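TASK: fixed-backbone design
INPUT:
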């Protein structure tokens, strides 16, 4: 008697089988990865390019960014500060200039020297250090912070702009103990820090430990990319309240790009 094998039926949500790559394809991928470490996060590169809403995690770049220096001025319409910025994608996502960082830099420059003069300021998730460099150039005493792989490029940018007297570089891993030689800030700056879901509670913890209820001002600029961002703000709501900055003349422009600039207030 013939035995009939059961037919396998694919469920609608089953993943299709992945093709097996040849050795030549693997070698090519490795060579391209060396030239452009972020290429898999760009539009059309692979399934990693988008997220659950089909948006792009890393902005499209015309070519690999390795050891370049750019010059940025703020505010854009009436330059007050000019920053030379070394960018290098080999350091990871933090080694390039992100749109929310430019929005926040432009806003604090718009507020002018009187807004930051003499203030103790900490930037978290600094990356290249752009926002903190602008704050230092405007008279603040600034600590720019990030993980160890980015400390070198941050220090290079401090030196490149002759800001060693007012901008210091510190390693700060979210969720860990704050540097002992870093004072309680009067102003905390954060731009494009909402991108990696496992780090959400760690970022909230660090902001909460750094801020003092009723006295610490926090400027928080971010670009909405994924539905998961809502989970970050659900966590943030337990420790902070917030409102959108309304006095920025460029607000309508960057809002169209899904970028928001908020002021956070620590709850008592």
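OUTPUT:
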């Amino acid at each position: 008697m013939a035995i009939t094998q059961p037919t396998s039926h694919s469920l609608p949500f089953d993943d299709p089988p992945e093709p097996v790559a040849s050795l030549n394809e693997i070698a090519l991928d490795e060579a391209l990865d060396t030239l452009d470490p972020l290429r898999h996060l760009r539009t059309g590169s692979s399934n990693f390019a988008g997220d659950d809403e089909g948006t792009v995690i890393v902005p499209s770049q015309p070519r690999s960014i390795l050891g370049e220096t750019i010059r940025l001025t703020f505010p854009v319409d009436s330059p007050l500060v000019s920053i030379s910025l070394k960018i290098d994608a080999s350091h990871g996502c933090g080694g390039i200039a992100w749109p929310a960082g430019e929005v926040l830099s432009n806003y604090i420059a718009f507020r002018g020297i009187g807004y930051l003069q003499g203030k103790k300021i900490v930037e978290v998730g600094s990356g290249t250090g752009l926002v903190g460099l602008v704050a230092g150039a405007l008279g603040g005493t600034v600590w720019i912070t990030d993980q160890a792989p980015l400390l070198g490029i941050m220090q290079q940018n401090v030196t490149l702009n002759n800001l060693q007297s007012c901008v210091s570089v510190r390693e700060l891993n979210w969720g860990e103990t704050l540097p002992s030689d870093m004072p309680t800030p009067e102003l905390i700056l954060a731009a494009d820090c909402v991108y990696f879901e496992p780090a959400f509670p760690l970022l909230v913890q660090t902001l909460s430990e750094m801020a003092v209820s009723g006295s610490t001002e926090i400027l928080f600029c971010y670009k909405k990319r994924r539905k998961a961002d809502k989970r970050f703000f659900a966590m943030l709501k337990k420790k902070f309240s917030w409102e959108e900055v309304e006095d920025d003349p460029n607000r309508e422009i960057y809002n169209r790009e899904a970028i928001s600039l908020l002021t956070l207030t620590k709850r008592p």
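COMMENT: Strands lie at 68-74, 81-87, 120-124, 141-146, 167-171, 187-191, 217-223, 240-244, 259-266.
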